[in-house]
Specification:
Elements (H helix, E strand, L loop, with lengths): L12 H19 L5 H12 L4 H13 L1 H29 L1
């Protein structure tokens, strides 16, 4: 029996919840003076951009309004990916 695997950009419940939560916190941050809403909006759009057209448009809108913020979010993603790759290599070396 062949089971169908979801596509790489297919929406998962965890990714949806994380992205929508970040967007909600971002909207609160725009309203409340104690939160920096822009970073949360950028993160929410960033998490959901591969799955939804409206999130891609939102990310493009954020890039026009705050290009430095979007660049920092993408740099943070690159650092996290590199860190996870290093940790994966360490674990593989430890168990090989």
């Amino acid at each position: 029996m062949i089971t169908e695997q979801p596509a790489p950009g297919a929406p998962s419940l965890t990714r949806k919840a994380a992205g929508l939560s970040l967007l909600f916190i971002g909207v609160l941050g725009v309203i409340l003076p104690i939160l920096h809403g822009g970073i949360f909006l950028a993160l929410g759009f960033f998490v959901l951009r591969d799955q939804y057209g409206w999130a891609r448009r939102g990310m493009a809108w954020m890039r026009e309004r705050a290009p430095g913020l979007c660049d920092r979010v993408e740099a943070m993603e690159a650092r996290m990916i590199a860190w996870f790759e290093r940790q994966t290599q360490r674990v593989r070396r430890a168990f090989s």
